[in-house]
Amino acid sequence: MRIVLLGTAAGGGFPQWNCACALCMAARDGKLPSRTQECAAVSGNGRDWWLLNASPDLRTQLAATPALWPGPGPRDTSLRGALLTDAEADHVTGLAELRGAARLKVYAAPPVRAVLAPARAALDRYGPWEWADSLADGGFVLAGGLVVTAHPVGAKIPKYVPAQAPGPAGPWVTAYRVESLASGGVLVYAPCVGAWSPALDELCAEADCVLLDGTFYAADEMGTTVRSGAGQAAMGHLPVTGPDGTLAALARHRGARRIYTHLNNTNPLLDPASPARARIAEEGVEVLSDGAEVVLQ
């Protein structure tokens, strides 16, 4: 199984266009690497590729990834579709970049598919797509030899969704377990986690690689960095540190390669020389750059 980290930043990217915090200014000065908004791609055979979320930066990300370039025919593509973890704007708006590509298949939980109904109708006018329930019993098999199951990990509803929006009840945020039929390698992809659960522990326990929500390093990060008064608790992301943080949870799963993604522009993990980066490195947890590839044998 091949996994490419197309983008590794949270919504707004890094540096964020309207932020002059120290980290963003360092990125503008070329002292820290810039990052595009979180998205990944996975393949079981190197020929059939599936997006994990669809970033607003998708066009740039695809252009920077030779494995996802078109060909050999003028309109041929190795991209088969996308798996959405939620309905957040930074995870779904990239679908518009794929308009006109026929026969793509998009998996998402029922509430996500419902709230995207207007966008689905618009995209289908360019070329018919198939929209499937990611939470269907038994999971599903993807072209390229991948078996996938979706698992609820949060209830965060995007801000753009009206409070009384009609549609099916159910989890708004899911993680994916992706297994290679050829090798048995297992990826757990969870870029948005609102609460740690025994089910998530079970997923990580059998994984070879975990791509995990690293949005905020500390619970009070937003308020202390940009003086907004808003902390991570209001945004549906567990922090990395703290007694209930994800770093403590990951310590139970040292057999897997563990990688943080979806890093907010306020997160000190963006600085390779920071004490924060040194701390997670001591625990064997990584932060990789945009374009990094992980191979599971």
How would you sum up this structure, described in words?
The protein has 297 residues and is of the alpha/beta class. It has a single domain (2-295), classed as Ribonuclease Z/Hydroxyacylglutathione hydrolase-like (Metallo-beta-lactamase, Chain A, 4-Layer Sandwich). Helix content is 20%, strand content 23%. The chain has helices at residues 22-28, 58-63, 89-92, 110-115, 117-126, 198-205, 221-226, 246-250, 275-282; strands spanning 2-7, 39-43, 49-52, 79-83, 105-108, 130-133, 140-142, 146-154, 173-180, 186-190, 209-213, 257-261, 285-287, 293-295. The strands form two sheets. Strands 6-5-4-3-2-1-14 form a seven-stranded mixed beta sheet. A seven-stranded mixed beta sheet has the order 7-8-9-10-11-12-13. α2 links the parallel β3 and β4. The longest helix is centred in the middle third of the chain and has 10 residues, at 117-126. The protein is globular. It starts with a strand and ends with a strand.
